[in-house]
Amino acid sequence: MRRRPAGLVAVLLLVLIAACGARPEEPTVPSGTVRFASYDFPENQILVEVYAEAARRAGVPVAVQHGIGTREVVAPALQQEVVDVVVDYLGTALLFARPAFPDLPETPEGMHAVLSRTLGGRGVLVLDIAQAEDQNGFAVTKAFAAEHGVNQLSDLVPLAPDLVFGGPPECPDRPLCLLGLQEVYGLDFGKVISMPSRAATVEALLSGSIHVGLLETTDARLAVAPVKLLVDDLALQPRENVVPLVRAAVADRWGARLTDALDDTSALLTTGDLVQLNRWVELDGLTPEEAADRWWG
C-alpha cells in the first residue's frame, strides 16, 4: 500500500469544497447525445477524441466539449450530470475522489476496485483501464543534470533553494505536483513560476528561465528537446492508467453499445500510442480530432 502524505489530505479537501459550487456552463445538444468532456490540456483532449470516435463508430450520438476546466471543475460536472463521459487517469482520479483514503493500493487493479466502489455510489461507472499510462514528471535540461550530477528528484534537495520551478497554475495546490514535492521530497524551491503550457515549460527550461519544470511522461518533446525527466525515487506518483468514467444513467441507457466501445478502445491503447498521438499534435500540428482519426486509421 502507498501511504499518502498526511498534510496533503487537508489541502485537497479544501480544494474539493471550493469546487462544489462551481458548475460549468452546459452546452445545448440534442436529447440523447452522449457528452464527452476533456480537461484543459492537449493530451486529454486527444484521448477524449479517441474514445468519442469509438462511440460514434458504435452508432452512439456524441458531442465533445474541450477544455472546460481543471479537475476541480470537470470531475464535479460528471456527478452533476453536466457531462456524461470523462477520460481520466487512475491514480489522480482516485486521489481526488478519496482525499482522506489513508493508503493507495499499489496495483492498477487495486486502485480500480477502490475507485469503482467510490464513484459507483456517486452515479459514475468506472470502465476498464488501458495499458496506456501517463504520470506527472519533473524535467531539467540535460546540461543542468550533467553539471550538477542530478538524476533523481532527491538530488535536487540541496539545490532547491536556489532553483526556479515552473508548472501549471494549479500545481502549487496539487498533491502530485508542488505539494507532493515539498512534503515527500522536502523540495522548497526558491521561486515558483506559473507556466501557461507544456511547450512554454520546455522553452523556459531551455532559456534558463526555470531550472525544473513539470512535463508529463508521455510528452513528445522529451524525444526531441535536450531535457530529461528525473527519476521519482521516492514514488510520489501513483499508477496513472487511462480510464474512462461514464455516468451510470448514460451507461444504462446505451448499454453495451457504449461501454463495450470504450472498453475495446482501452484494450487497444498503449503508452506508445499516447506518445505518438501527442507527437502528432504537439510537433506535427494536427488537431486532437485529426490525431484521433489518424490513430483509428
From TrEMBL:
GO CC, one annotated term: ATP-binding cassette (ABC) transporter complex
Alphabetical list of Pfam families matching this protein: OpuAC
ABC-type glycine betaine transport system substrate-binding domain residues: 33-296
Keywords: Signal
Keyword Phosphoprotein: no
Alphabetized GO MF terms: transmembrane transporter activity
Transmembrane segments: none
Signal peptide: 1-24
Listed InterPro entries: ABC_Gly_betaine_transp_sub-bd
Listed name of the protein: Osmoprotectant transport system substrate-binding protein
